[in-house]
Predict the 3D structure of the following.
Amino acid sequence: MSDPTPGRLYWRKSSRSTEHGTNCVEVAAPVMSKRILTRDSKDPSGPALGFTRAEWSAFMGEAKRGAFDLA
């Protein structure tokens, strides 16, 4: 889904988050930006971490491969 309003961020919650989860990550990909932003859903006005699209792609590839699984 694209950003419905130019300049406004559209945040998406992780699909791994539970309905009442307290450890949720949200991600935004501004249309006119080369950055992917992440934030803690419990603190939407708090800081966001920014990553290049290449960094985000590398991270997601490793996560899908299971590189960060705890078990």
Remarks:
- The mean pLDDT is 83.
